[in-house]
Amino acid sequence: MPIDATQPYDPDNIFAKILRGEIPAKPIYEDAHAFAFPDINPQAPQHILVIPKGAYVSWDDFSTKASDAEIAGFIRAVGLVAREAGMVEDGYRLLANVGQHGGQEVPHLHVHIFAGRPLGPMLARQG
Ligand code: 5GP
Fold this sequence. Notes:
By secondary structure, this protein is α+β, with helices and mostly antiparallel strands. The chain has one domain (14-115): HIT-like (HIT family, subunit A, 2-Layer Sandwich), CATH 3.30.428.10. The chain is 27% helix and 17% strand. It has a five-stranded antiparallel beta sheet, with helices on one face. The longest helix is centred in the middle third of the chain and has 17 residues, at 68-84. The model has no long low-confidence stretch (mean pLDDT 97). The structure holds guanosine-5'-monophosphate (5GP). Guanosine-5'-monophosphate is lined by residues 14, 23, 25, 37-41, 97, 103-106.
């Protein structure tokens, strides 16, 4: 079920548990502001999730409340993860789902990085 992007932060969401080490995730990258790990259900040959370490529900929450240092650190981390995964030459796609219409399932901001094949149209075509 997609989440309501205006809901308060739930400290028991699955990515908060990953950040606390309560649920395992293979670390791909970590610094003061960001953590990257493989998606458990990959939708492309390479599918990485990058999350901020701070408690932010969504892109909306993060872009409203995070400090400039958190925002700069997170955005740079997303680029670094893709670069270090060798995705730049052939290209990649970033996706951040927000709320109901975005189809966001986990209420902790995450950016998906997809790569490894031509990724097709930006959105699934309707009927
Ligand atoms: P959303 O739909 O919220 O943008 O994407 C949530 C993503 O989190 C999905 O692609 C899903 O496969 C991934 N995911 C959900 N639970 C876990 C988990 O416990 N570990 C990992 N690595 N990924 C998860």
